[in-house]
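Researcher: Here's a chain I'd like modeled. Treat it as a single chain, no partners, no ligands.
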Amino acid sequence: MPTVDDILEQVGEFGWFQKQAFLTLCLLSAAFAPVYVGVVFLAFTPDHRCLSPGAAELGRRCGWSAAEELNYTVPGPGPAGDAFPRQCRSYAVDWNQSALGCVDPLAGLAANRSHLPLGPCLHGWAYDTPGSSIVTEFNLVCDNSWKVDLFQSCVNLGFFLGSLGVGYIADRFGRKLCLLATSLTSAVLGVLTAVAPNYTSLLLFRLLQGLVSKGSWTSGYVLITEFVGMGYRRMVAILYQMAFTVGLVVLSGVAYAIPHWRWLQLAISLPTFLFLLYYWCVPESPRWLLSQKRNAQVMKIMGHIAQKNGKSPLADLKMLSLEEDVTEKLSPSFVDLFRTPQLRKHTFILMYLWFTSSVLYQGLIMHVGATGGNLYLDFLYSALVEFPAAFIILATIDRFGLIRPLATSNLVAGTACFIMIFISHDLHWLNITVACVGRMGITIVFQMVCLVNAELYPTFVSGVGPGCWGNDAASS
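Model: Modeled as a single isolated chain. Structure tokens:
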């Protein structure tokens, strides 16, 4: 009884059809990058200080330069352990009193300005940036800085909760339906995020986008690996994830060109509506159709693939089989991941690997945004190291297998993060270099765990496997 792989050998394992589908679906992977790490640009925190209308008015009367106004009216660095008084505190003085002169106006109030009382920022903050972010618009600094972490935690929580349902939908109703539904919903929520009127609605839209956005990426991953023959499956899986890196590189350029967060969010959301064209461009997975015993549709799609690849049309095959037995259970369930001792062991190991690699990967990305250098260049450099990571996998996976490169990459990433603890923040270049090494190591881990998931689980539960939970653990 022939299998899908047997038929693909006849119609072409990686012909024109698969190459076209691969390039088309790679756009999904690239478009997922802004959803996952867009917080670096959407919520960047520029240098800031308390806004004081009285001090600003005095500065205008005295003709101070920007540097003079900062020197005269903004507190200096506080003692060790104090919470950034320069950014979160202001002098508790009446700037409208006539005793204040234009040259060092506070000198007459105290011999040492450090003795002057400090108060909270009652009139908001002034930000030193030509653009905007959710931080500058909603004043998410000082006592409210935790709300930036909550913003990203919402999308990560959405990834986790959504993976439980989206994976089931992909396995129960098909990869294509899941792809189209999640792409449309994610695009709409991306636009709603761009026009959110307040912080609360922003969190809600971000959470809902997290619920569905990972589904389109996962559906594309599963589709392309199920379209190709066995010999090409690993290659397309790795290159599909490399398209995510392309999305990171493009994101850094788009964010540089559009420094205002609402316009940036629109720029990365509106193009995703074009994924609805996949209804006509991408067929359903023949492997999934076969797992649902819809053999007639499988043969129709295989005939289309043969035509696209310039192969001879197939004979009318009445009997097909999957590599695994699907006679007993065709409906996926989360319980299937723990049904046998071997599956339980694999599931728990993959869950642990996903948790650690997700937290580490996102932590390294967030670290780049907090080093104090050029945000756009630092982000670009750290993204570029993911390309050699993919090539290392391609060069080593057939020679050394999965386990040794996976263990080595985990060791490299962990060592890099440990070393970063002892590097001074003043050594910016060394911080970025070591972070990039760690980023390359953890990228290899991510991509290999995806491969392990695809090869360990049967077709009808691959969508609910822990390999499809990637990035979800970062919500912790």
